[in-house]
Automatic annotation (TrEMBL):
It is found in: Membrane. The keyword Transit peptide does not apply. This is APC family permease. The keyword Membrane applies. Pfam families: AA_permease_2 (PF13520). It is a multi-pass membrane protein. The lineage of its organism: Bacteria, Bacillati, Actinomycetota, Actinomycetes, Pseudonocardiales. InterPro entries: AA/rel_permease1 (IPR002293), AA_Transporter_AGT (IPR052962). The chain crosses the membrane at residues 21-47, 53-75, 96-123, 135-157, 169-189, 201-222, 243-265, 351-368, 374-393, 405-425, 431-449, 461-483, 495-514. It comes from the Bacteria.
Length: 521
């Protein structure tokens, strides 16, 4: 069966994309998508859980995230396409999986509105009339909407302009944290902090694993898939996409390690009276800068608290447009949204739809923000589906392997297990909202199948059933587990059980795709 718009139509629109992005531009996209305002707090949270051993946790997270990213590297190198992360689940696992994953991606546009809200919140430090009582004021909502229009306009005129603007923003996003590391190491670093308050691992080495999720370390390194969604606009994607994905992870990891080391060495001794768990700052690096008489740095940090989420939102607007464009190719959205503007090479209709969605997300409906805040979790489903897709493609067409990822047959199941854990570690407070919302994609699939009447409904349900069952079981385990759940499954056994479940599901998911291949453009 054919699960997408006609091949000639898709190829015609794909051919209008401009291949202007090189390694530098793609790497800047990846780095900017990874490093938002969270860098201001990640070092504090990690230190509270693991103490100085948080440095080891960052290294472990770098390895885990890289293993997941290698799947994206392989797919981006061998199957470059605009919004590819949305297309591959459809190619590999059929329309049910493609619809569920695609619907989750459509919902995750809310993550961009959350970044815009963060910008206004930080700007409220200087302009208090924008943010009050833990919410945007009326003026704050208007300001956020205007900002979303500006970011859309900067994406409007071509990927080359987008790349240049984002590279400039990325320079700032690198410079400010790097300046913070250098000044804190030079002005206040005391190596005794690494050993004198309970030792290097005051809470045991198990705390290192706890910090991966509870300290936000793994999530601080997420977002590396962004260069892959621009693979249709990359020069020589077989080379540039892998270098950009791995390079952006490496740069972000080095930056986070530097920040963690600087934070650990600069915390005043009197703040450690109750150990690292008792360290608490509202603005960690800003308050350390003030304590060390670095008033200039404190001012710069508050300014960067606006710039960093602004850069992430800028990339988010662009990535969302590629996703919407790809969803139109998948026929989850009207085909008119697949149109690429001939002279600019930008899917402008997709940009406009996403702008409208962002504006709706920004409106202060009752209880709305509690839902929007979990939308970023939905991006993690792309990693699950990509691991399955890579293994399905490896078995179907081994001759197309790029050579970038030796041992792919081992890496794909490991990536699937890790991606499942990333979802689980998000915590039940997020997953109890995010996963049921995602499963709305199932009745949506049925509606779309009734519209098109292509192929057997039973075959499609059988092909994609693994994802539905996987998400239902994950929701149940999350509710019983130790990450905001009831605690019936205590740590670390809940993580072990989730990993074992993922090991069981993966071969089932792969067999479903290999046994019943999808005919797609």
């Amino acid at each position: 069966m054919t699960d997408t718009a006609p091949a000639s139509e898709v190829e015609a629109e794909e051919g209008r994309l401009r291949r202007h992005l090189g390694v530098g531009g793609l790497s800047a996209i990846g780095f900017s998508n990874i490093v938002g305002s969270g860098w201001l707090f990640a070092a504090l949270y990690a230190a509270q859980i693991a103490g100085p051993a948080a440095l080891v946790a960052w290294l472990v997270a770098g390895v885990l995230v890289t293993l997941v990213a290698l799947v994206m590297v392989e797919l981006g190198a061998t199957r470059p396409e605009g919004g590819g992360t949305v297309r591959w689940p459809l190619y590999a696992s059929g329309r049910l999986t493609g619809t569920v994953v695609g619907f989750s991606v459509l919902l995750s546009v809310g993550a961009t509105s959350a970044e815009l809200t963060a910008i206004v919140q930080y700007a409220g430090y200087y302009l208090p009339w924008l943010y009050a009582d833990d919410a945007l004021t009326g003026a704050g909502v208007v300001f956020a909407i205007v900002l979303s229009v500006v970011l859309t306009a900067l994406n409007w005129f071509g990927v080359k302009l987008f790349g240049r603007v984002n590279t400039a923003v990325t320079v700032v996003k690198v410079a400010v944290p790097l300046l913070t590391v250098v000044l804190l190491l030079a002005s206040g670093f005391d190596s005794a902090r690494l050993t004198d308050h309970g030792g290097f691992a005051p809470y045991g080495w198990g705390a290192v694993l706890s910090a991966l999720a509870g300290g936000g370390i793994v999530y601080s390194l997420n977002g590396f898939q962004a260069p892959v969604d621009f693979s249709g606009e990359a020069r020589n994607p077989q080379r540039t996409v892998p270098l950009a994905v791995l390079g952006s992870i490496g740069l972000a990891l080095l930056l986070y390690l530097g920040l963690q080391l600087a934070f650990l060495g600069a915390v005043p001794a009197d703040a450690l009276g109750s150990g690292w768990q008792g360290v608490n700052f509202e603005s960690p690096f800003g308050q350390l800068a003030v304590a060390l008489n670095l008033g200039f740095l404190a001012a710069v940090l508050y300014g960067d608290a606006v710039v960093s989420p602004g850069g992430s939102a800028f990339v988010g607007v662009a990535v969302d447009a590629r996703h919407t464009y790809a969803l139109a190719k998948n026929r989850l959205l009207p085909r008119a949204l697949m149109a690429v503007h001939p002279s600019s090479g930008i899917p402008r209709r997709a940009l406009l739809l996403n702008l409208a969605v962002i504006v709706v997300y920004l409106l202060p409906f009752s209880g709305w923000q509690s839902i929007v805040s979990v939308m970023g979790t939905l991006y993690l489903l792309l990693y699950l589906a990509a691991a399955v897709a890579a293994e399905v493609f490896r078995r179907r067409e081994p001759e197309r392997l790029s050579g970038w990822v030796p041992g792919l047959r081992i890496i794909t199941p490991v990536s699937f297990v890790l991606a499942t854990l990333f979802v689980y570690w998000s915590g039940f407070s997020d997953l109890r909202l995010a996963l049921p919302l995602t499963l709305i994609g199932v009745p949506l699939f049925v509606v779309l199948w009734r519209r098109d009447r292509e192929g057997s409904l039973v075959d499609e349900l059988r092909r994609g059933a693994w994802l539905v069952v996987h998400l239902l079981v994950l929701t149940l385990l999350s509710g019983l587990g130790s990450f905001d759940g009831a605690g019936v499954l205590p740590a670390p056994w809940d993580t072990v059980i989730v990993a074992v479940w993922a090991v069981i599901v993966f071969p089932v998911a792969v067999r479903s795709g290999v046994r019943e291949p999808v005919l797609a453009s």
